[in-house]
Amino acid sequence: MKYQLLLLLGLITIVAHSQTTFSVTFPTAQSSASLDGRVLLILAKTSQPEPRSQVSDAVETAQIFGVDVDGLKPGQRAIVDASAFGYPKRSLNDLAPGDYYVQAVLHKYETFVRKDGHTVKLPMDRGEGQNWRTAPGNLFSKPQKISIKAGGKQSVSVVLNQVNPPIDEPEDTKFIKHIKIQSKRLTEFWGRPMYLGAHVLIPAGFNEHPEARYPICINHGHFPSDFDGFSETPPTANMDTTDYLERFKIHGYKKIVAQEAYDFYKKWTSKEFPRMLIVEIQHANPYYDDSYAVNSENLGPYGDAIMYELLPEIEKQFRGIGQGWARFTYGGSTGGWEALAAQVFYPDEFNGCFAACPDPIAFDAYTVFNLYKDKNAYYAEGPFRRTPRPGQRNYLGQVKVTLEETNHRELALGTHSRSGDQFDIWEAVYSPVGSDGYPKRIWNKRTGVIDPAVADYWREHYDLLHILRRDWKTLGPKVTGKIHIYCGDMDNYYLNNAVYLMEDFLKSVQNPVASSEVAYGDRAEHCWNGDPTQPNYISRLRYNTLYIDKIMKRIETSAPKGADLKSWRY
């Protein structure tokens, strides 16, 4: 009887909670036209920062629900109810009674009629680097305090009466120049004008030495709003140092960053520093803040567009040498994967890559599981139990979030790989196109069940270890001596697991030997990039100077006879 009573009370609670609904509208003042997109409803226990800024993988995350809208008219209601998928709670039914601060966002989608015949709706980047919180033109509401009660019907109205402003383009300085081109390849693929951009750090003496031609280094990474980590002015003596960075447990990190940026400027303009071009690329797209710098069925030919359209234009405008022996690439995390991928897919076009903490470079160590042998991405499964797989950890191995949780956050943010986040961009880049025009799911986003057919496609097209192993006879002679990989052995995302497998291959391969470098940081977390003499919070700020000696040595030993080794050494 007691058990039946408890069960009945539970059902009553569920029914009571399921009566809470949210009605989201926008006024004509914000848009007179109908809008497509994703309505995101966020509930938080505090008002600061705004609820939309509290959604994360942290245990303190705000609650978020999402629903797709097509042709939503001004004044028309988008209903968020118990059927909307949420994170970390799956349903409005699961929310406890109490006070909340609620905010809504409409992440706007555009319609693309692609060359492959598919029509898809996606959030075009608008200069912000694919961030639904700040994307210009996205509508949002002011936070409002509500109370969810334990019984009765409740309908909460939320009005999207605010809009994110446009973002200004960065301005040129003496040393930092900006370039943007319309890509013929990408425009043809997407059926609308598509652009590539770059921030170029030019050397001291560029104007005084018009005869000089320069080597070029591409610093890959996430969307750069401008060239980062370079400042002609030092931090002020009275700069506030009360800020605290939880990740590194350090106060005053903003001043440290400012000082490192000024120190880089002093090195860059010193007589001893080799003259070269350093480039950061802007290649945000409708799925993510960058394209992973490869050709993709879903994103289009970004690799070729960067390699054969953007890079030649940069070298033309800024007097690059324009030959493979004088090109290098480096980066960390996403940029680490891109640096290695550029070297593998365009082996003759680069003379060395420096890949730090790269995204999984072997998919049989896809973070913590084997994409080809395991059946479920979220759980290790046996006959009598299922163990959740970890998604992030700290240097002590303490787990921050599971793979299921972080993927469910993405699913709340967007269906069809449209969250603009990590697992969805891997899927968008690596997967074939599905029958609906969107990326084929590598696994069921709700359950984690892996699709082996899609995994096979990933292996043949983007598993960098598999490709090197498969094609070493022809690829090996072109990349020997060029591969450098660095990773912390306590990488927060378990990226060191794939590096171990790559290291085993590079050490053992013959005809030719790889002559590569793989190094690990003891207890180092994500973004360790190969300097054991400095703490991670310093070395991560020195990508643009860390590999210079190795690059210069590589140029000296590998440049072809008659190569220009002097015009840029002044």
From TrEMBL:
Return the protein name.
Esterase
What's the source species for this entry?
Spirosoma flavum
Q: Which InterPro entries match?
A: AB_hydrolase_fold, Mycobacterial_A85_antigen
Q: Gene3D superfamilies of this UniProt entry?
A: alpha/beta hydrolase
Q: What is the lineage of its organism?
A: Bacteria, Pseudomonadati, Bacteroidota, Cytophagia, Cytophagales
Q: Which UniProt keywords apply?
A: Signal
Classify the source by domain of life. Answer: Bacteria
Q: Please verify whether the record's keywords include Hydrolase.
A: no
Nucleotide-binding recorded as keyword: no
Q: Which residues form the signal peptide?
A: 1-18
